Amino acid sequence: MAVAIADARAGKRGERVYSGRVPQLLERGFIAFKSSTYMIVISGFIEPVLYLLSFGYGIGKLLPTIAVGGESIKYAAFIAPALLATSAMNGAIYDSTMNVYFKLNHDRIYHGMLATSMGPLDVALGEIGWALIRGFSYACAFMAVIAPLGLVESVWGLLAIPAAVLIAFGFAACGMAVTSYMKSFQQLEIVTVVLLPMFLFSGAFYPISVFPEWLQFTVNLLPLTHAVNLVRGLCLGNLEWALLGHAFYFVVMIVIGLFFTTKRLNALFMT
Asked: Among 17, 22, 52, 215, which residue has the fewest nearby CB atoms (within 10 Å)?
């Protein structure tokens, strides 16, 4: 079968990097999920729910409403979209960093995959695709929690689910690209060092307008800030052209991430 696939791709553009076998990578991810990784995946859903209960209904008692776009909304409704965006980010980034690192450097799974008809783009799309499925499941599950609680202010909030998938795609693509350049397990700590301050300062729990202007400029460059603004705008029904800018930010992340991931895997295994 591998020979037949290789022959079918012969002479086609990108034959050295892509064979069209992404579904096989997704199947492998599902098998691993059923056998050993389901607890890790489930924990990624529980975490934002705990944040919502502790901050939304804890601090929410002290701060019942908060002003957004000239109107007052419940504090829980303010942070719920941000937690949805954050869960999509966390699910994608951890799946595409720690998980990929061990497959790349310890289990050497990619060595075996790329010894077949699969190309580096198959591996990149397969791993990122699994991260997207994880991000999509988090978004659906979290939406099923916050919608009945009245924390989605607009029917446009349904678009927060595909928005979360786009966010997950962007983080997964860049996460896998960065991981492919890591040389040691200790370097994975860089991921936590980057994610924690981004989570705290991205406007998830309070408007970034509380910061001085120079810090607001820096915060607005962070990907999670764009993710929070995109999902929050949809959930609140604040449809503005700026939402397209936030979405385009992640399109750029996807293109850059896929390019460098494919280039790096090709350099590691195909030359």
From this structure: 215
